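Record passed on here:
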Amino acid sequence: MINFYKLLHNDKDIKYIVDLIISTVSDKKSFIGIDFYENHILVCTEIAYKLAIERNANIKNAVIAALLHDYAMHDTKKDHEIIGGIYARKILNDLNFEKDDINTICQAIEHHRDGILKYKDKNDLIISDADAISYIIKFPFFEQYERNIHPETADDILMNKIDKICDIITPGGLDLIKKDCERIKGRLEENKNEKSRSKRLFRKNS
Protein backbone atom coordinates (compact mmCIF):
# COMPACT_ATOMS: atom_id res chain seq x y z
CA MET A 1 0.00 0.00 0.00
CA ILE A 2 1.45 3.35 -1.02
CA ASN A 3 2.25 5.79 1.76
CA PHE A 4 -0.24 8.66 2.10
CA TYR A 5 2.27 11.45 1.50
CA LYS A 6 3.86 9.61 -1.40
CA LEU A 7 0.40 9.31 -2.92
CA LEU A 8 -0.07 13.09 -2.66
CA HIS A 9 3.18 13.74 -4.49
CA ASN A 10 3.47 10.80 -6.87
CA ASP A 11 -0.04 10.55 -8.31
CA LYS A 12 -0.18 13.22 -11.02
CA ASP A 13 -3.92 13.88 -10.64
CA ILE A 14 -3.76 14.19 -6.88
CA LYS A 15 -0.63 16.34 -7.03
CA TYR A 16 -2.34 18.64 -9.51
CA ILE A 17 -5.30 19.04 -7.14
CA VAL A 18 -3.05 19.62 -4.12
CA ASP A 19 -1.12 22.30 -5.99
CA LEU A 20 -4.37 23.89 -7.17
CA ILE A 21 -5.77 24.05 -3.64
CA ILE A 22 -2.57 25.46 -2.14
CA SER A 23 -2.38 28.09 -4.88
CA THR A 24 -6.05 29.01 -4.43
CA VAL A 25 -6.07 29.33 -0.63
CA SER A 26 -2.79 31.26 -0.73
CA ASP A 27 -4.47 34.01 -2.76
CA LYS A 28 -5.25 37.09 -0.64
CA LYS A 29 -8.84 37.08 -1.94
CA SER A 30 -9.51 33.60 -0.55
CA PHE A 31 -11.81 33.30 2.48
CA ILE A 32 -9.64 30.43 3.74
CA GLY A 33 -5.87 30.36 4.00
CA ILE A 34 -3.03 27.88 4.01
CA ASP A 35 -3.62 27.33 7.73
CA PHE A 36 -7.08 25.95 6.91
CA TYR A 37 -5.54 23.62 4.33
CA GLU A 38 -2.95 22.35 6.80
CA ASN A 39 -5.23 22.09 9.84
CA HIS A 40 -8.35 20.75 8.18
CA ILE A 41 -8.25 19.78 4.51
CA LEU A 42 -4.99 17.85 4.73
CA VAL A 43 -5.93 16.21 8.04
CA CYS A 44 -9.35 15.27 6.67
CA THR A 45 -7.71 13.80 3.57
CA GLU A 46 -5.34 11.58 5.55
CA ILE A 47 -8.24 10.30 7.63
CA ALA A 48 -10.27 9.60 4.48
CA TYR A 49 -7.28 7.69 3.08
CA LYS A 50 -7.17 5.49 6.20
CA LEU A 51 -10.94 4.97 6.25
CA ALA A 52 -10.95 4.01 2.57
CA ILE A 53 -8.39 1.29 3.31
CA GLU A 54 -10.34 0.04 6.34
CA ARG A 55 -13.68 0.05 4.50
CA ASN A 56 -12.36 -1.39 1.24
CA ALA A 57 -13.27 1.67 -0.80
CA ASN A 58 -11.54 3.36 -3.74
CA ILE A 59 -8.58 5.11 -2.11
CA LYS A 60 -7.88 7.62 -4.87
CA ASN A 61 -11.51 8.70 -5.09
CA ALA A 62 -11.69 9.12 -1.31
CA VAL A 63 -8.49 11.19 -1.22
CA ILE A 64 -9.64 13.47 -4.04
CA ALA A 65 -13.11 13.93 -2.54
CA ALA A 66 -11.54 14.86 0.81
CA LEU A 67 -9.12 17.27 -0.80
CA LEU A 68 -11.94 19.04 -2.63
CA HIS A 69 -14.71 18.77 -0.03
CA ASP A 70 -14.18 22.35 1.24
CA TYR A 71 -12.52 23.76 -1.86
CA ALA A 72 -15.46 26.08 -2.61
CA MET A 73 -14.96 27.83 0.72
CA HIS A 74 -12.21 29.89 -0.87
CA ASP A 75 -14.92 32.10 -2.36
CA THR A 76 -18.17 31.21 -0.60
CA LYS A 77 -19.36 30.13 2.83
CA LYS A 78 -22.94 29.45 1.79
CA ASP A 79 -23.82 26.02 0.35
CA HIS A 80 -20.12 25.34 -0.13
CA GLU A 81 -20.76 21.61 -0.42
CA ILE A 82 -23.07 22.07 -3.43
CA ILE A 83 -20.82 24.60 -5.12
CA GLY A 84 -17.86 22.41 -4.26
CA GLY A 85 -19.42 19.60 -6.24
CA ILE A 86 -19.70 21.90 -9.24
CA TYR A 87 -16.07 22.96 -8.95
CA ALA A 88 -14.94 19.37 -8.50
CA ARG A 89 -16.85 18.20 -11.56
CA LYS A 90 -15.10 20.77 -13.73
CA ILE A 91 -11.66 19.94 -12.32
CA LEU A 92 -12.16 16.20 -12.78
CA ASN A 93 -13.56 16.61 -16.29
CA ASP A 94 -10.47 18.66 -17.17
CA LEU A 95 -8.35 15.80 -15.83
CA ASN A 96 -10.31 13.31 -18.00
CA PHE A 97 -11.65 11.23 -15.12
CA GLU A 98 -14.17 8.50 -15.85
CA LYS A 99 -17.79 9.61 -15.51
CA ASP A 100 -18.55 7.09 -12.74
CA ASP A 101 -15.58 8.28 -10.69
CA ILE A 102 -16.58 11.90 -11.17
CA ASN A 103 -20.12 11.17 -10.00
CA THR A 104 -18.86 9.22 -6.98
CA ILE A 105 -16.44 11.94 -5.91
CA CYS A 106 -18.87 14.80 -6.47
CA GLN A 107 -21.68 13.04 -4.62
CA ALA A 108 -19.40 12.53 -1.62
CA ILE A 109 -18.50 16.24 -1.64
CA GLU A 110 -22.12 17.35 -2.00
CA HIS A 111 -23.24 15.17 0.92
CA HIS A 112 -20.35 15.50 3.34
CA ARG A 113 -22.45 17.56 5.77
CA ASP A 114 -25.32 15.05 5.85
CA GLY A 115 -23.68 11.79 6.90
CA ILE A 116 -25.98 9.03 8.11
CA LEU A 117 -28.95 11.41 8.36
CA LYS A 118 -29.55 11.09 4.62
CA TYR A 119 -27.05 8.76 2.99
CA LYS A 120 -25.77 5.20 3.29
CA ASP A 121 -23.24 5.12 0.45
CA LYS A 122 -19.85 4.18 1.92
CA ASN A 123 -18.02 6.70 -0.24
CA ASP A 124 -20.19 9.56 1.03
CA LEU A 125 -19.81 8.36 4.60
CA ILE A 126 -16.04 8.13 4.36
CA ILE A 127 -15.86 11.85 3.58
CA SER A 128 -18.47 12.91 6.14
CA ASP A 129 -16.75 10.78 8.80
CA ALA A 130 -13.32 12.11 7.88
CA ASP A 131 -14.61 15.68 7.99
CA ALA A 132 -16.15 15.14 11.43
CA ILE A 133 -13.15 13.32 12.89
CA SER A 134 -10.70 15.93 11.61
CA TYR A 135 -12.75 18.67 13.28
CA ILE A 136 -12.35 16.97 16.65
CA ILE A 137 -8.69 16.11 16.11
CA LYS A 138 -7.92 19.72 15.26
CA PHE A 139 -10.50 21.24 17.59
CA PRO A 140 -8.16 23.93 19.03
CA PHE A 141 -7.82 25.41 15.54
CA PHE A 142 -11.59 25.72 15.08
CA GLU A 143 -12.12 26.84 18.66
CA GLN A 144 -9.71 29.73 18.24
CA TYR A 145 -11.46 30.76 15.04
CA GLU A 146 -14.88 30.86 16.72
CA ARG A 147 -13.56 32.73 19.74
CA ASN A 148 -12.03 35.35 17.47
CA ILE A 149 -15.17 35.80 15.38
CA HIS A 150 -17.89 35.19 18.00
CA PRO A 151 -16.31 35.76 21.42
CA GLU A 152 -19.62 35.94 23.31
CA THR A 153 -21.32 32.92 21.76
CA ALA A 154 -18.39 30.69 20.84
CA ASP A 155 -19.13 28.06 23.50
CA ASP A 156 -22.68 27.53 22.25
CA ILE A 157 -21.59 27.48 18.59
CA LEU A 158 -18.88 24.92 19.29
CA MET A 159 -21.15 22.68 21.38
CA ASN A 160 -23.82 22.77 18.67
CA LYS A 161 -21.20 21.80 16.10
CA ILE A 162 -20.11 18.82 18.17
CA ASP A 163 -23.75 17.75 18.63
CA LYS A 164 -24.22 17.85 14.85
CA ILE A 165 -21.07 15.81 14.33
CA CYS A 166 -22.38 13.15 16.71
CA ASP A 167 -25.68 13.12 14.80
CA ILE A 168 -24.22 12.57 11.33
CA ILE A 169 -21.16 10.40 11.96
CA THR A 170 -21.32 6.62 11.58
CA PRO A 171 -21.22 4.47 14.76
CA GLY A 172 -17.73 3.32 13.84
CA GLY A 173 -16.56 6.88 13.34
CA LEU A 174 -18.14 8.00 16.59
CA ASP A 175 -16.25 5.32 18.50
CA LEU A 176 -13.01 7.01 17.44
CA ILE A 177 -13.90 10.43 18.85
CA LYS A 178 -16.63 9.87 21.47
CA LYS A 179 -14.37 10.36 24.50
CA ASP A 180 -12.80 13.46 22.98
CA CYS A 181 -16.23 14.90 22.19
CA GLU A 182 -17.39 14.34 25.77
CA ARG A 183 -14.21 15.88 27.17
CA ILE A 184 -14.43 18.94 24.92
CA LYS A 185 -18.13 19.48 25.61
CA GLY A 186 -17.50 19.20 29.35
CA ARG A 187 -14.81 21.89 29.14
CA LEU A 188 -17.00 24.16 27.02
CA GLU A 189 -19.92 23.75 29.43
CA GLU A 190 -17.71 24.60 32.39
CA ASN A 191 -16.35 27.62 30.54
CA LYS A 192 -19.88 28.76 29.76
CA ASN A 193 -20.92 28.35 33.40
CA GLU A 194 -17.86 30.27 34.60
CA LYS A 195 -18.76 33.16 32.30
CA SER A 196 -22.31 33.16 33.69
CA ARG A 197 -21.01 33.22 37.27
CA SER A 198 -18.67 36.09 36.42
CA LYS A 199 -21.51 38.10 34.85
CA ARG A 200 -23.77 37.53 37.88
CA LEU A 201 -20.98 38.60 40.22
CA PHE A 202 -20.30 41.70 38.14
CA ARG A 203 -23.97 42.71 38.17
CA LYS A 204 -24.15 42.09 41.91
CA ASN A 205 -21.14 44.30 42.59
CA SER A 206 -22.20 47.06 40.18
In short: Residues 143 and 158 are 7 Å apart (CA to CA). The two ends are 66 Å apart (CA to CA). The chain has a mean pLDDT of 92.
